[in-house]
Every structure is written in C-alpha cells, then in structure tokens.
C-alpha cells in the first residue's frame, strides 16, 4: 500500500496537508484562554456548514457512532418509540444501537439501493394518532450503497401527517460534501464526524441539536456521562471541556470549516457533483450499474458499483490494494461481494479521480470482467474537460 | 503562550516529535490488512505496560472519562453496589458518573491530599457479609492533588476481607509514568488515556479488562453501544474496528509503547522519580509544602503545591501563562486557589524541568510570595547533578 | 495549482513523506558527535549508489550547477582544454560555465535529441596526439530532451584512443533512477543533486571524485573556497564541515540512499523503466514521437514529447497548470515550444503515472490536438498490468 | 542529545514550528507562476530587514560562506586590494577566502575580543592616497568571540578619509537579531545566511548589493558561474532562477521576514537585548567575564564566556552535550579551550534562556568551577522579571 496514491474509500478521505498540520499541533493547555480561540470558531463553523441559525453544536472526542449515541441518550428514555428505515449497513447499525438502548423500534425495511421511503413514513406517522413515535431517524447518505435520501421529503412526511416527532439525521457521509439544510429541513439532530466532508482524521463526533431537541435533554433518562451534552454545554460556556479535549482535531475542524466556507458551500457541493459525475460516466462506459436504484438517489460522495454475476466485487478491492496500492471500499452486509465502492468525497481533484478510475479499470480487467481499458477514463475525462470552467479552444 | 516553551500541566504532556509524527499519518484504509500491523502491536504494547499477562486491552476513540464509562457499562447493571473513595476531583467525577448511571454508591470521603483509605475499605468490605459490593473503585494517582494511592493496599483490603468484589483502577495519570502492576495487584479494570504517560495527543481511552471483569460483560445490563467491548472484541478478532478507528493515534500508541518498553519500564519510572525529586527539592527550598499529606503519597507525575495564606494559587498559573508563556495546572474543586500544579510526566528532561521551576519561582516572586529567586532551581540542580549517572569529577 | 496532485516535472520529484520528514529535522548541533552519524552514512550511501568502491564523495549545500563548478574548479586551471558535446540545454550550460571559467573548449555540436557522439569523441581524442585535452564532459541524461547517452561508449572512445583525459559526467537526472557505474565506466567525476533520483528537496550538490580526479586537486589553480573539496575533506575527516551544513538535507540523503539500496538499485532502475515504458506506450498511442531520436536513447527519467506542427507545446504545460493543477516540463532552448516533458523519476507509482498521462491527454485535446481521450491511458494501463509481477487470472 | 531541549549554539537556532513547516513544503514547480509569489516577497522582506531602499537582494542555495564568495567574485578581480581586520575565526576565514581568490590583502590584526579597529582603518585609508584599496571588509558580529563591531564607525572612517572603497559587511550572526542599517551605514554588500536571525535551517546565502556594488559586476573578472549575480538577476526578472531553487527554504524566508517585520525590527532587537542581558547578568553572578573586551562590544546574539585558568572551556560544552543533552558552542581558533559560547539569537524565550543558564551552571559545577548553583539563574530571573513589560504587583 503506497501512501503516495490517493485513497478512494468513502472516508476517511484524502487529507489536505493544511488540515493535517492544523490537527498536528503542539500541546496547548486546554484550560488556557487560547483554547477558546479554537473551540468557538470550530463550533460556529460547523453551525454554518449545517446551514443552521439555531442549532447548538457539540463535538466529542469520538466518532459518528458516538454521535448517534449522543443523539439517543440525551433525548430519549428506555421504551420510547422510534421510527427508522433500514436500507443499508449504516441505517442498520443505528437501528441496532436503538434496540440495545431499549428503545421501541418501528422499522421500515427497504431495499439496499433504495432511499428512505418517505411515503411509507408518512403512512406510519399518520397512523400514529397518539403521537407515540418520539423520533424519526433518517440516514441522509447511505455510505454502504451510495444512496442519498430525501430529507426534505421526510420533513414533508412529518408535516403532512401533522406529527410532532423529532427528526434525527445521520449526515456522516453527506455533511460538508452534499447539500444539508438543518433549519430548512427541520432537522432536530444532525450527526457527523471529522473524517468525511471535514477531511480530517477520525476522532470527532460532531452533532447539532435544534432547540426542540435541546428541550428533551432534562427529561431523557437514558444514562450517559461521557456523551452528556449538559456537561459539554457547561464546559463550552466556560471556554472549556468536561474532560480533556482533542485540541488538535478541534483546531483542524476550525480550519476545515474555514476552508469549506471560504470556498463557498455551494461551490463545494458542485465540486463533489462534478467529480461524482465523472465517476458515474465511467461506470456507464464500463456497462455497469450503480447500487442506487435511480439517478435522484445517486450520492455525490460515494458510488457503489454492482459487479456482474459470477464476479466477487471484493476481489476488485483486494486486487487494487495488493497490486496497485489503491484503497477502494468493499460491499458491506447485504451487498457484500456484490458491489465495490469508490469514495469521491473531500479534497479530491479531477486528476486524482482519474487515477482511481484508471485503477478500477485495470483491476476489473485483471480479474476477468469484460471492460475496455481506458473506456471509463475517457468518459470521465470528457466530463471533467467540459466542466472545468475553462473556455475550450475547440469551442472558441 | 509560546509553543516553544515546555508545558507543565499534568497532561496532555510535551510530545516527542517522533510520536507527533507517528500520530500524524496519511490516510490508511482501516479495512486493509495494514491496519492489523498497527492495531495488534499497540494492544500488546499496552498490555505489557500494564504488566499483565491476561488482560484484554481495548482502545476507544475517546478519553479517560470514556474509559471509566466503558468499565462501568460493560460490567454493571443499574442498582449494583460500588465502593469508592473521594479524595480529589477525579475520584469525585468517577463517583458522579456512577451515580448518573444508577449505581448504588458507598462513598468514603477522604481529605484532598490523603490517599485511598485502605483500612476503611477493609472495614467496609468485611462488614459487607453478603458481598453486595460488586466493584471497588480506586484512583491510583489523583491528578488534582498529586497523591499516589496504594493499590496493592486496596488489593490487600479485599483479600483480608475475603471479598470477591472487582477492583477498578483509574490509572490515567500513573500508567506509563509510575509503577503499575495489573496482575500482581489483582486489578480487574485499568483505565488510562493517550495524553499522559503515553505522551500522545488526547483522543484515546485505553482500558484493560481482567478475565474476571470480562466474565461480567454478558450479564451487565447498563446500555452501551459505542463503548461496548463485545463489538470492539469482535472487531479486533477481525483485524478491524466496529467503527472508524483513530488510526494515527493508534499508530502513535504503538510507537509510544515501543519507546517505553525499549527504555525499560523501570527506567521510565526511575526517570519520572528523578525529575519529581528535583521539583520536590525546589518546593522544599521555597519553604512550601505539597498537598499530598506524606512522602509515601507523593506523585511522580504531578506535584500540587500549597500556597501560603493570603495568596491565590491560581494567580501564579495565570501569571505564568500571561507573562512567561508557560502552562501550569490550577487547583480544582476543593483545592481551587489553594494549590498550583506542576506536571512532570511524560518526556521531560532535567533541563525542561529546571525551566519550569525557574518560571514558577519568578511567578511566585512577581505576585509577592517571599521566595528567593534561584533557590528552587539550585535545589533541583543539585538533585539532577547527583543522579545523572555521570561520575562527577569532584567525586573522582 | 493543487498540492494534492503529483508533479510531472523532471525534478524536483514527488517526495515520499518519509524523506520530507527526515529532511525536516529539529536543529542538531553540527559540531556534535551526532552529526557524524548522519554525514558518513550519507556519503557511504551515495558511493554505493554511484557503484564505486574508490570514489570520494562530497556534498555541498548547493545544486547540481554547483556540482559542475566543484568538478571544474578543483581539478582545472584557466586555459585547460576540455572536450564537450552540446545536445541539449544542460550540456549547453555546463559548456557555458567552462567558458566563463576560462577553459579552452572543444565543442561538438549534436542534434537536440541525439546522444553524446562517441565516434566523434574518439576521432577528436585520437587526433589529440599531445593529449592536450585534460577533461572530457558528458551529460548522461539530457533532461531537456529526454536523451540518455552511452557513458560506457564515451569510456571506450577514450580507451580506444589511448587518451588519458579525465571523464566528468553530469548524472543529475540519471543517478538514482537509471543505471550508473562510476567504476566500471571509468568516470572520474560524477555530479548530481538531491532533488532527482534522491527524491529530496533541492539544496545539495553531490559529487564523486575518482582517485585520478583527486590527484588533480593540488595543481588546479582555478580559484575556489566554498567549493574547495580540500576544506570539505578536512571537515569530513573531523566529522564536520568547513561551514554550516544543511543537516536536515544530509539526514534526508542518508535515508534516501538507504531506501534505494534496500529496494535494490536494479529494482529501482527496473521500476523506472516500467513507468517510463507506460508513458512511452501512451505517446505511441497518441501518434506522437519523442524528441529522443532512437529507442536506445530513451530516458527512463523524463520523456520529451514532440507536438505536431502548428501547436505550441508550452501551451500544454500552461494549460495543465492552469486548468488541472498539474506540472509538466516545458521545452527549453532549441526545443522550446516544440516539446513538453513528462518527468517520471523518483517515487512514482503506476497510479500516479496514469493520472499524469490522463491529464496530458485532456490538455492536448483541449488545445486542439487530434488525440483520442483514454487512448494513452489504455496503452499505459496495458503496460502496467502486464508488468506488475502479479499473475493475472486471465492468464491462469 | 535530546531534541526536546533548546539549543544554545550561535546558529543554527531553535526554529519556530511555523518556519519549519514553511520550509518543509511539498514539491512546487519552480517554473510555475506560483514561484514568483514566494520569491519576490522573500527578497523584498530581506531588503526591509536590511533597512535598505536601494539594495538588490540575492539568495543562493548555499551558506554565508557562499555569500562571502558571491561578494568577492562578482565585484573584484585578481590582485585587487582589500582591507580587513582579523579579530576572530570568521573574519579570519573571510580573509583566507580573499587570499585564495588572489586578492591583495591588507590585514589589521586585532585582539580576539576586540572590535574592528576603526581608527586604524581610518589611518590606513587616509594613507592610501591613490585609492588602491577597492574594498573594506568588516565582520559586524564576530560569532567566535561574541563581539559586535561598530559598522557606523567603519563608515565614518571611510568618510573621514574621503576614501571611495566599497564596504562589505558580514552580518551573518547579526542581521535579523541586532540593528543593521545598510543604507544609513553605507554598506555596499551585506552578507548573511538563513540559519541565524532568520531562524531557518542552513542552506541559503543571503546577500544585499548596493547600487555602487552592482556597478562593479561587469568589470570584475574573478571567475564565477554558480554565484554569478547576473544570472541570478536575469532569473529573478523572469520570476525564476538560473538553476533549481531551494523553494522550501525560500518559502521559509518569506515567512521569516514577515514574522520579523510584523513583530517590528526594533522589538526584535530589544527582545534579543533583553535575553542577552539576562545571560550577561548570569555571567557576572558567576564571577566570570566575557571575551568581548568592553560593554559596547557585547553581542546580543552570542556570549563567549571566559573560563578561569586551569579549566578547559570545551569540557563544559562536551559535558553539557553528554550529560544534559544541551548544545553550547565551543571556542574556536585562538580562543579554543578558553571560552564557551551561549548562543541567544533567534526565537528564544526567557524560559528557554533560563534552562540554558541553569545547564551551564550545572556543567561548570560538575567540572569543578567554583560557581554557586542557582546564582546565574537568579541574576537572569531578575533581569527577565524586571523587563517583561508586566507591572509587578510588588511595584503596584
């Protein structure tokens, strides 16, 4: 495995050197006033990335999984009813966590490759006359299947049903890469991590709470200390933390949000879309299909590519690692062996993306797929050429 | 605050550049086989540092506080009885966590400056005829007071009482700096973090479970997912993690354990003792006393120094930060304003220690204490000169 | 210009992170004994890379140009006669330096794209009955044209002519990337720098002197101090330098030689040849030709690619930088505007090379060349697939 | 040797992390337009540090020694007459270089510990009726003896004598640390390097030429190519270099000048003076004396401290390195064994300086000098306390 090649896993991403350096800082006394100059801009930056005016943002030395647990334990009590859809490995895991914390789950099974079924959600919510459902879960981007769900649609389902349930969204592999509108979509808790759109090492759970979610904190009885946002909020109010913070990662998060906001969130999203379009053009040129069932579901941060019958998709990933020193993502759970994944989020250039496409192409040919070398690259090149913003001579 | 000066907080410590670089690694696919080459040596290295042959070691992207929660939630159920002593801020916080998780606490209040009262523990354990106490907590090194407690003595209390309770030890600011004998002392769970004796950035909870502690995991009903060691163990068995690991920090932990073991644990402890002796000689020369009540309690990783009546110890810390760019530790909780702390753990040289002592000296004089400039430095210099291992000419 | 993309200039190369870190070291007292532990292994390592048993190696804080000057000023006097061939920009510059130092130049003009004309050298040397020619210059790899000359052939020319002239070779862009045999080829002075095959930042001139070259040092009268190898040799004998050394770069050089020797020089050369073959296959697929006149002259460290009539090759380079953030090399001197150069030396992977080829392809299409997107990539992919050492399934 | 301790050699200095990072940059195409954004600000920054409006600044991948050679070879011809004083190792070496380049030296011998003898210079210049002396050399700060000479005084000597000779000043260990006024003092060539006041790794020769010096370039006949400022100037005019530049170091130089100018040059000089005053107070407390003969000669960048009869000063330096891992400077040339040197230039804090003083103290006691531990530290503490700018409580 060469550290000179880009990685194409759907996170952790390739890290810009500036962010690695921001995260790799010398020891700073986290009880000194300098810590505030890192902490508050990082929290404010996240809030802007979430497109929220009202959220309270909390950052824990943890991961997105810890973020899920923060959401649940701070707002719910054992036996509380939660509506969720299972359409991939990460929605599955959040459901599993709920179960282990004694929540009463109403689960909608969906195809791995489908989005969150907003119509079915609406039916269930309408049927819940007594408003027993406290929380609705939705995974914005199913990293396992490369499926982007319609969170605005989930909000409409709630509104159409006139249901007061809270809406908790896993935005781990979308926030910072794809459009996410916490306030506009009425998201009550948004969960993400440092190692995806923020382009940092893993190690931070990043969570935004709406005022409505904050209002649950005192009555929720699920036990928590490490993830208790009351201690965290008290710390922040004092420019501090309830325990030793991961200062370097917070410093990285501060810079990451500056970078995203300076580039402009819409530009960031457009950039991800461009890169993803190139990958999708390559998939099409190869005669393959995505796991995502329809174009409206295509994720701009990861593509899960179906391999033909008779081939184990995981072989492509192993082969890429062993022979070319390149990391792709394997299929997980129900789609294990059926898909391989190309992560294309974070700080990626056309040139880096092309090297990933070229490598996937070689691997597929090596293991016997009927793919023409250069075909996917050419399709992606065409996309990238046409969308650089550069006025081509041929067009002049 | 100059980043060129050493820090003298009791963790995070000054970080050797080799460890910063190990932690600051490029993105590695944590599902690749290379991850195993980081994970297992790190776990094995920790086990050796714990002086255990039988412990299972778990490392979470979290902090020592998360380590406490891991210990509790994986082995206990609401209402379980726990014996603990409160003799400082960190023992207090662990007790607070127990309470918030619904455990039935039997608390022994001790002076802030005293050690864990092993005699009192023994009395209570003897009195607990029905063995209702499931777990005994002990804080090996109270970072707030600079007090090292006698864990072997706690074990004797249990044994003398013939009590089967499990022994959980907070070794956050002792492990890797002061002698810790998990097997010999019959410690069932040992908790530490990355940012103290391991000289790394904060961000890892490091926990060792004895076989006896492991045996509790299936019956314990406190809810947990992020900190569930069953998921973690299943991950490790597969050279993986249940979620995205902090690969860089694990790589740093691997190197940190190599560094400690290559130096030799006893040499590491002797080195900490030497440095601490210099600091204590300075304190004595200043005519001041430590918060720790007697020499057997003196911590080799942090000294909490009592300031005379009429002075606010926190002023010394603020002044050092503002005027000299040096970070000391403030007093916490009951000893706030009464002590300031010099952390002297991790990778510290005589020369660095002397600069801390010299700075403390200037600060104390600046705020009006009757201290002679150079007096503490001279006392520490004498300690360091006599113990370098160098055969002095004068002695030849 | 993105720092995430590889560079494809013919030096400075892409730097492995390990070498960047070795070069970026904290201040070390260069008069301490630790300096010897860096200096001598670095010098010895270079000697092995030069394939010499007898050379004395000198390393100056300078560049290859300084290495040329070291060669001349330490062994020659004003008016001394020197034979040289001009077949590119770098051979031209060395000749210019000779002239400016008052040497009497006999210059053989050769086509830019041709190698050193060994037959013509032999004629001239045979004709020089009085052995007035003191030194013969040869540029092993003309970086400007991507032409590798036959140094063994130059040695044969000297031997066939029975001529005692010294042979000085510019190996700046060959040593460490392509086979170089100082002793076997009877090279008297070999010159290189840190930023090519050694994969380091620019900043070191690296020079090997044969015993025969060393014998000239006392009688040579060209003035020199900074580049005087006598001061340098005296310094080395004392584990020191005549002035402040670039300790970090020397530390990097030590590690670079270790990396090259651990990989095995022949493996390093084969790797460069593989990568270069892929680039050349792409050039062929594009229907273009190299500046190098024949396959025996093809350089494995840089390819200078001729663009068709009517196109300015420099536009490709500008376009790549402006639109795709990728650095290629422009044509220099006589071939300015006629060629663009792809550097493929140092630590490059197949995957990185493919991204360069894909980018060149897009640029050529963008500026209007009749090139098929993906065609060069496909040709290179085929080369890389067939030569990975991996047994392909299709072949099984 | 611990890399955690500060170094106290008179350069290379302790490097701020920001400068190490600026210097450690990824490969940038030095023929791209981005290079100009590094080069020109670096050159302009140096000009401001030199306090010159009219100088042309040149930066070579070399060292201060190369800077001396640049000065000589670009403006002089063999046989030209040069006036110089020898009062330490570095003035000696520049004289030696002149001799080796065939210049006709008129040397004024001065005590090692004395400054440049401006009166004697004036006499000689007055006596040189035919103005045969082309150049006067002066070493602003003799690093070997810790002596700062009076460059304004040398200018007055020239002016008083009505002599048109050029004035070349070695400011290697003064520029960026002590006041240097190129225009006001009529300095024609100023020479320095990257590893002193600029706090960077060694590897750059930095030279400023006055218009008068520039006017000599075409007529000077000393051979040069690498150090020819005409090639360098032509390169700069084209945003380029005549050969491969040390891009990272130039990037570091750009940032170093920004840091110095943002702090304010006068503040930088005051800071050096404060730190030096502390060291001198310690020397006085030890009952020792400086090599510099009188207070007006005391250098603010390095102190050369005389050891009493019967002690070898070099033992102190070896002992510090071996036992305490701290680097001081040995005595060189005539003062070898008689002095040891504490470098106190660059980015040094009070706290760092105190650790050096404390270490020197231990070493002197260890080898048997009659020094009281803590005495020098106390004297320096008093200086630092009184000059922090902080209003002491005692004084309030």
TrEMBL record, chains A, B, C, D:
The keyword Transferase applies. GO terms for biological process: glycine biosynthetic process, by transamination of glyoxylate. The modification N6-(pyridoxal phosphate)lysine is found at residue 196. Residues 29-318 form the Aminotransferase class V domain. Its cofactor is pyridoxal 5'-phosphate. One of its GO terms (molecular function) is L-serine-pyruvate transaminase activity. It comes from the Bacteria. Substrate binds at residue 341. The keyword Magnesium does not apply. Belongs to the class-V pyridoxal-phosphate-dependent aminotransferase family. This is Serine-glyoxylate aminotransferase apoenzyme.
